[in-house]
User: What shape does this take?
Amino acid sequence: MKNIPILNKKKLFKLLSSRFDKEDKKLSDIPNPSLLKDANKSAKKIAEAIRDNKKITLVGDYDVDGVSSTAIMVDFFRQIPYPLEAIIPNRFRDGYGVSPNVLQRIKADLVITVDNGISAIEAAKICKEKNIELIITDHHTPDEILPDAYAIVNPKLDTCEYPFKEICGAQVAWLLLALVKKELNLNINMKQFMDILCIAIIADIMPLININRALVKEGLKVLMSSNRPASIIIRDFLNKAIINSEDIAFQIAPRINAAGRLEDASIALEFFTAIDVNTAYKQFEKLNALNELRKETEAETTKEAISKVNVNDTLIVVSGEGWHEGVVGIVAARLVERFDKPAIVLSIENGLAKGSARSIANVSIYELIKENKTYLSKFGGHKMAAGLGLNSHDIEEFTVAINKSASKIDPKDFIPNDEALGILPSDEINFELLNLLDNFEPYGEANKKPLFFIKDASILDIKLFGKDKSHSKIIIRQFNHERKSIELILFKTAFKMPRDMKLTCNYRVTKNEFNNKVSIQLIINKIYNY
Assistant: This one.
């Protein structure tokens, strides 16, 4: 926090511009899908299956990326038109991805996976025995041993020449469908799916640089104009002149995710693929209700998890009997936020532990888990997030082992890169600043929304608001020589006046739209020394 610069708009523009190449990528810069290993082979096989009237079954995943991938596929096949059976496994009954469990109820000639399958060794064997051809499309990190499938489309394969590796499952599916369209000479506009595609990219925390940036920018525009019933409902719900990546990350993604976390992801799929606004509205209402339940469950579990944390560990591992396995991923993220350490949260049932891991800064949670896979029955994921399963009696040894691995990592890799860019004098905080920040949208992974710093500001007043007075408005004066006071919002905390009546924090500048009025909102991200 030393030598923090005082910023003006000109300096800020320069700082934000330096994050990108000279020129933004355009949609025309998206690399040819043919560069994805096995993509042409897969497209030909899918086209052949359609021509030969074969039974095709799609197996998705229950998170936003998996549901989005499935929805894009369902919509595409509907426009051919061709009957596609789409299955999203139930987290509680089926487990993850194209599992032997799911295959029991599949009778098909061709099975295609989206956003899963790269670790489905057992399922691939069953498909071989059943004479089912299996095409895996995924973006998760492959292990040394790959499933014995007809084709595997995954940019992270060592042998894959696709130049940009950091794409999500929905992008892989969308790129493959572009090749299927070509094979069958179809008149389908691939741009129409970009409203759902951009939701997947944002929700799956893909870096918003390179082609991802172009796709999200364009996708948000498509979302604003699409006549897809789900997009109409999203626009109606957000009620904003311009929808940005934060609206998707904080308002839409949690609702889509809530279905698979607490009940069944088919609710979210039916929302995305609804053919009329009435159906989409009904499904969205269900997602809203599930999201409220998710918040309650998550808050209870987080409280319990915090009480079990060993603060001396480099990497947090906590477990609890009967914790809802649908919220352990979010609880892990809450622990990362609170303790600035990677976290693994496990739910135990009948001697089996299933859980989720979230990472921080430059630490690959996937590599740490992989290094200790001898303790595990299953695992999979990528650098920032992973899933795993093990016997509950192995948790203690696993905790010791993974902490030993984590202690070998350079401590600098654990430091979150959320430091503020500088201090903004209060007079610089105006609508011109909002417009400047808008120019660098979309914000997200690898293009973080700028944080600004406030040091030892005088607190003039604190007001609590919200249904249960759990949020705070803190009115401050940044510098004694300034006449202007500014208001900061601190969500989910009833802030008490510190003895010295001073505040040191970082915050982000957001646009608040309410009743057709636009105002500037300063949201506190982190309070220091409090």
Remarks:
- Residues 139 and 406 are 25 Å apart (CA to CA).
- The chain is about 40% helix and 20% strand.
